[in-house]
Amino acid sequence: MKPLINTGLPGPKAQAILRRDAGVVSQSMVRDYPLVVDRAQGMNLWDVDGNRYLDFTAGIAVMNLGWNHPDIVQAVTSQVQKLSHGAFLDFCSEVPVQFAEKLVSMLPGDLNRVYFSNSGRKQWRLP
Question: Which of 11, 19, 59, 119 is the most buried (most CB within 10 A)?
Answer without folding.
Answer: 11
